[in-house]
Design goal:
Blueprint: E1 3-5, E2 10-13, H1 20-32, H2 43-54, E3 84-89, H3 92-103, H4 106-111, H5 115-120, H6 129-134, H7 136-142, H8 144-149, H9 153-157, E4 166-169, H10 173-184, H11 207-224, H12 230-238
Parallel strand pairs: 2-3, 3-4
Antiparallel strand pairs: 1-2
Length: 239
């Protein structure tokens, strides 16, 4: 779902694994006058709350579950008259690798009670990056977090990047900060909601796996046009 910010008079179109938690929590604070309080210390308690929230038996705790802040398909979005539109994107291969590091591992599957489903498909619980790419569609079929964090850019942004007044790059956050600060009339605060630790997992890819990954992300590169170059990504993977 596109997030409508009254403070900015702007609509933010979120993309999973591209700083969406941080931006949503920042926009929440701007529009509500206080930080989002949904993050608890005991994540196991939060998990129970998420399930109860889905059944509307308890208030949601995660920013992505709040009404007006959920991640939904582009076609459901509405832009009020007089509001600008913006989004934040990143290199598609880097986004895929980030999803693998953060969401495709034993602890995440255990957290979501998906271990048995993964094992029953004959899939590794802690796949290397290459194993994940080899079984990309199988993991997406079994695991909701995998599906959510690897959705194509077009699901989030539609088919035309030209729709947006501003399309910022994660690799150049200073531009976003400058533009949004100017529109807000004061420094735009940046929160860092999710911080991934250093991964020691095997991220090497064979030539065949590189080709598969580029095929998976090809439509994303095409949509983003001149913002990213798939040939540059290929050269970096092959280095």
């Amino acid at each position: 779902m596109a997030v409508i910010s009254r403070a900015l008079k702007a609509v933010y179109f979120d993309i999973t694994k591209v700083g969406s938690s941080s931006l949503k929590e920042t926009l929440w604070e701007l529009d509500h006058g206080a930080p989002f309080k949904g993050r608890g210390v005991r994540r196991v308690v939060n998990n129970l709350r998420w399930r109860l929230a889905a059944a509307k038996l308890m208030q949601p705790r995660n920013i992505h579950e709040q009404e007006g802040y959920r991640t939904q398909i582009f076609s459901l979005s509405k832009v009020p008259e007089g509001y600008i539109t913006f989004t934040l994107v990143r290199d598609p291969v880097a986004r895929m690798k980030s999803a693998w590091k953060d969401k495709i591992h034993r602890n995440q599957f255990r957290w979501r009670a998906e271990e048995m489903d993964i094992e029953n498909e004959g899939l590794p619980l802690d796949p290397t990056f290459g194993e994940f790419i080899d079984h990309f569609h199988e993991y997406r079929a079994v695991s909701r977090p995998v599906r959510v964090h690897t959705t194509p850019y077009s699901w989030h942004l539609g088919e035309d990047i030209g729709f947006f007044d501003w399309a910022f790059r994660l690799e150049a956050l200073d531009e976003m900060h400058s533009r949004l600060s100017e529109r807000l009339g004061q420094p735009f605060p940046i929160h860092h909601a999710n911080k991934s630790g250093l991964s020691q997992r095997d991220d090497k890819l064979t030539r065949r796996q590189i080709d598969t990954l580029l095929q998976i992300t090809q439509a994303d590169y095409r949509l983003l046009g001149a913002m990213y170059d798939i040939n540059t990504a290929e050269n970096a993977l092959a280095a």
